[in-house]
Amino acid sequence: MSTTIEPLPQPSGAGSPDDHGGYAARLLEVHKNYHLGEHVVRALRGVSIDFPHGDYVAIMGSSGSGKSTLLNLLGALDRPSSGEYILGGQYVSQLTDDDLSAIRNQLIGFIFQSYNLIPQYTVLENIQVPLNYRPGRRDISAEDTERCEFLAGQVGLADRLDHRPFQLSGGQQQRVAIARALVNNPEIILADEPTGNLDSTTEGEIMQLLGQLNEEGRTIIMVTHETSVARRAKRQIIMKDGLIASEGLFGVETEVK
Amino acid sequence: MSNTLRTVQLALKSLMLHKLRSGLTMLGIVFGVYSVIAMLAIGEGASLQAQQQVLALGATNVIVVSKKPPLDGSNNANGARVLQYGLLRSDYRLLVETLPTLLGAVPIREIPSETRYLQKQLNARVVGCTADYLDMNRLQLARGRFITDQDQSQMANVAVIASDVADTLFPFEDPVGKSIQVKESRYKVVGVTRARTASAAIGGSLSGQDFNKDIYIPLRTCEVRIGDLVVNRSSGSFSAEQVELNQITLRVGSVDDVLPTAEAVRESLERTHRNKQDYDVVVPLELLRQANQIRQIFNIVLGSIAAISLVVGGIGIMNIMLATVTERTREIGIRRALGARQSDIIQQFLTETIVLSGSGGLIGVLFGLLTPFAFSGLRWFVLNFVLEASATDSPTGRLFADLHPQIAWWSLPVAFGISVGIGIAFGIYPARSAARMDPIEALRHE
Ligand SMILES: Nc1ncnc2c1ncn2[C@@H]1O[C@H](COP(=O)(O)OP(=O)(O)O)[C@@H](O)[C@H]1O
Ligand SMILES: [Mg+2]
Questions:
Q1: Which atom of ligand 1 is the closest one to the Cα of A192?
Q2: Which chain A residue lies closest to B342 (C-alpha atoms)?
Q3: Which atom of ligand 1 is nearest the CA belonging to B438?
Q4: What is the pLDDT of residue A60?
Q5: B40 in a domain, yes or no?
Q6: Does the CB atom of residue A74 touch ligand 1 within 6 A?
Q7: Domain for residue B157, yes or no?
């Protein structure tokens, strides 16, 4: 690929005492149940999967199969009902709500299908949002702002810094979201149908950006319905009824028992 | 602290998203804060007015006034009876001789009477008094001299006239040296007093004392020339009153002596007057204390009314913030996903509420500063369009006309502080409910 967006410092986790150093994230027999009154929805029913550093994974599967649930768990937005989730060497189930916030802020960048920008903020302010929640709550410095402007430039929005989201096209909004996801230089990028609302040209541009991020060493896990999108990932996971049905490269799928 | 500044800036940005809604919500607080300041200013003004009036009577004075006793049936059976009541010259002598705390004492006889100079005439109040009267009532001379002890012992036919009398009878002349006619006698004018605003009510009546239509003559002269009997003939009916003294003003040396002296006066007069109920003892100091107490009650009542409007404003804020939180559920989810803690969300929404209520408070304070002007406008409107002329001149009308709101400076920071407090109190619940949302649910909202 052409230019890099922002090289990621090589993960230093390798060789750390907890033995999970080689992986960005690991799931062990993870279950997730939702309680709707008497009724229990078993959204995940024992998922085990490892994501090595620098992985690029597309999660596919029919609607309701548990893709979003899995992604939310990976993003530390929620804890498993049972099983273990090890993120950056830490057991998520043992962390407090504030710890999870810090992890989301530092380790993870989210990209959503509906962009999820804050409507009353400008492009620049949207990119800055994660900076407000850095550990220690440092003030936003001039260098920070410079970096945000740099990132905006990298996603092709240098001249739109003062625009508000409603003044941007879907593709541009998703670029803002990508810049925002990168601002704290996270190791993992989680994307839930990032091109779901975009036309195919824009889809291509966004996917190219994600590809670059992966080449820089970031782990990318994305949910998608499009084979054209999934094809760009290093490997594909198909989910079915809260379980991983098959895993592997396109065309050489292996059934998971 | 640039972070705080930034937080406030971003809060403003969110509030500007719904300008009308934020503005209307703020209005509740604006009016609340304004009414706190205005109410306290009016209360303060009223109490200042009362204090000044009472102090005009003299804080170290004890005033005894004659009053018509309540009529019993036998008295008004015959229309042609002479009603005899009030303070006696013997009362005056007894008080002066038996009270060691007195610094001064002035016996006063007041008789309304027509006065003439050449063709001009005026209904004045003839006041028989002694030399101390001038000081005791804080009157000042414009010209000439006041009545002296010598006038008294000589029963001189001299008079000191007040400003209105001088203006009416002597519009173009110097009154001093001229002779005026009062009842059957002529008196030589020896002095003129300065105009003075009416002082407070004595003896429970609301009407203040107007000193500007007075003619002062020596008490002994009054006794000899005019006498104690005053006869009123009006359209066929006839009434007569015999009164020796209308008032005795006593002065003591220090404020501490006032109440014991008043007590001694009451005991002494009770013994001589028994059950006649033809006098009142007025103690300005007591009135002052009452006025202060009334002020406190006033302030509490007015303050509570204003506080209610602040609480109503607070409820408005809470209502809007709850709506805002629901409306911005998704934003909350986004922020949580990007690393906001629950406490960050609380801080964000609380800041917005405080900015809202605080700026409302600030505007309210600014409006509050305009209270005296606003009240002038109100007074002008009431006096010109609401009250009839007679009502304007009534004691209550005058009370209103003379009322000048005084901004209590302490109320400005207090009212502003309360507005911020209201923001915190009514903002914490919406902020907490925002923070407690499940991030995933919040992200899925809409
Ligand atoms: N918050 C929730 N409460 C109840 N049920 C839920 C919740 N989130 C997801 N589910 C259920 O869990 C299952 C998996 O949902 P999801 O992970 O969103 O599927 P996908 O993203 O693959 O379409 C579905 O049956 C869905 O209805
Ligand atoms: Mg989904």
A1: 21
A2: A98
A3: 1
A4: 94
A5: yes
A6: no
A7: yes
**Cβ atoms of A179 and A171 closer than 8 Å:** no
pLDDT given at position A88: 83
Interface membership of B335 toward A (CB under 8 Å): yes
The chain-wide mean pLDDT, for chain B, equals: 86
The ligand with the least distance to the CA atom of A33 is 1
Dihedral pair phi/psi, residue A46, rounded to 5°: 100, 65
| Ligand 1 nearest atom to the CA of residue A63, by list position | 23
Preferred mutation among B19, B338, B446 to probe A, highest tally of A CBs within 10 A: B338
Structural domain range at position B27: 2-55+290-444
What pLDDT score was predicted for residue A214? 95
CA-to-CA distance for B338 and B442, rounded, in angstroms? 13
Ligand 1 neighbourhood includes A65 CB (under 6 angstroms): yes
CA distance A44 to A46: 6
Determine the pLDDT at residue A14. Answer: 43
Reported pTM: 0.74
Please compute the mean of the pLDDT values over residues B3-25 and round it to a whole number: 87
Q: Are residues B137 and B202 part of one domain?
A: yes
For residues B159 and B201, membership in a common domain is answered with: yes
In a domain, B274, yes or no: no
CATH 1.10.10.10 at A54-77+100-255, yes or no: no
Q: Distance, in angstroms, between A255 CA and closest chain B CA?
A: 30
Same domain, B89 and B213: yes
Q: Are A240 and A65 in contact (CB under 8 A)?
A: yes
- Please indicate whether residue A120, judged by its CB atom, sits closer than 6 Å to ligand 1: no
* Ligand 1 midpoint to CA B254 (Å): 87
> In the predicted model, what is the mean pLDDT of residues B105-123?
90
> Do B125 and B223 belong to one domain?
yes
Nearest by CB to A137, from B3, B333, B438: name it: B3
Number of domains observed in the structure of chain B: 2
Domain endpoint, select from B202, B231, B252? B252
Angle made by CA atoms B171, B177, B183, in degrees to the nearest 5: 80
Per mean pLDDT, which range of A184-188, A251-255, B409-413 is the poorest? A251-255
pLDDT at A15: 43
What is the Å distance from ligand 2's center to A74 Cα?
A: 14
Note the pLDDT of residue A19.
61
Bridge partners of A254, per DSSP, are A247
Please check whether residue A24 is in contact with residue A47, taking contact to mean a CB–CB distance below 8 angstroms: no
Number of Cβ within 10 Å of residue A77's Cβ equals 22
Q: Which of B193, B227, B252 is the last residue of a domain?
A: B252
Co-location of B215 and B346 in the same domain: no
Output B235-243 pairs: Cβ under 8 A, ≥24 positions apart.
B237/B79, B238/B79, B238/B80, B239/B79, B239/B83, B240/B81, B240/B82, B240/B83, B241/B68, B241/B82, B241/B83, B241/B84, B241/B85, B242/B82, B242/B83, B242/B84, B242/B85, B243/B66, B243/B84, B243/B85, B243/B86, B243/B87, B243/B109
Q: Determine which of A73-77, A127-131, A147-151, B242-246 has the lowest per-residue pLDDT on average.
A: B242-246
CA distances from A204 to A151, A251, B129 (A): 19, 22, 109
Domain boundaries of chain A, sorted by first residue:
54-77+100-255
Q: Same domain for B246 and B332? A: no
pLDDT over 90 at B301, yes or no: no
Residue A150 corresponds to which tokens in the numbers above? Answer: 């740099």
Return d(Cα B109, Cα B166) in angstroms, integer.
Answer: 21
Tokens 């008032």 correspond to what residue? B247
pLDDT tens sequence across B340-350 = 999 999 999 99
Say which of B16, B338, B439 has its CB closest to residue A130: B338
Position B257 in a domain: no
How close, in Å, is residue B345 to chain A by CA atoms? 10
Decide the pairing of beta strands A56-61 and A219-223.
parallel
